């Protein structure tokens, strides 16, 4: 049987996920549960339903979605469509009845050959710009066997391959199946304190720090740490200085600081997820400057 993967998006013409023009594939499923997750639709390792209440227009469609729902997760009362996302079995009948795309699928299975066909459409742009394919999520390494075969196929076509990872994976398997085919790894470092990591991400950071140390010692991989700047969580002086010192000890001289983006909260509403972090504004220039100062103090790390 041909290998298949569970993904939730394929974005073409990306310029922020690595060098050149790239296609980014977002894999579903993640072992972390970060309170500020930018892609909450990637956390769950099952297919899901998203509902945009503002786009719903019952008078336009006559609520045609309700009678075709096999799981009865759609109910109409008080002139409003109510959706119980967790009951959805993804029969997918409602999507055909929704003229405003208020109901949309989140996640779908795709075969190796189909995904390869879709990403290779832009092969001329990859080669012309030094671009390629980026694996993101969720946490792409949750589907390591599929990615192993996918990477093998890409490398026979001389495609640059990058991975965006939380760092939470089994390193021996990663080193055998994934690492030999990668050109670049974007590695997220969030919190240095173990208890803070457990509280805000649902997991200890021990495995993450160990895996970073392993990768930093690998001679043939470009490793780029990324630090998400989450106000009042990862942006404390103690945390940023701790990450900077950790990188310095491993001979890392460059890192990306990623300013907080609040747009993820709209996604949680559509997935009927109650967010645990509530800041709705972007970071100010003053906040960003302070984070850079904390991070670069007494280090030579370029940001």
Topology summary:
Layout: E1 4-14, E2 22-27, E3 48-51, H1 58-61, H2 65-68, E4 74-77, E5 80-83, H3 93-97, E6 103-106, E7 108-111, H4 112-119, H5 123-129, E8 132-137, H6 144-155, E9 160-165, H7 171-177, E10 184-188, H8 194-201, H9 206-216, E11 222-229, H10 237-249, E12 256-259, H11 264-270, H12 285-296
Helix pairs in contact: 10-12
Domains, number? 2
Uncertain segments of ≥5 residues (pLDDT<50)?
none
Annotation, overall tally of beta strands: 12
| Discrete helix count | 12
Strand order of the largest sheet: 7-1-2-8-9-10-11-12
- As for the CATH topology of the largest domain, it is TIM Barrel
CATH class of the largest domain: Alpha Beta
Estimated helix fraction: 25-40%
- Distance, first to last CA: 45 Å
The radius of gyration over CA amounts to 21 Å
Tell me, rounded to a whole number, the average pLDDT.
Answer: 95
* Percent in strands: 15-25%
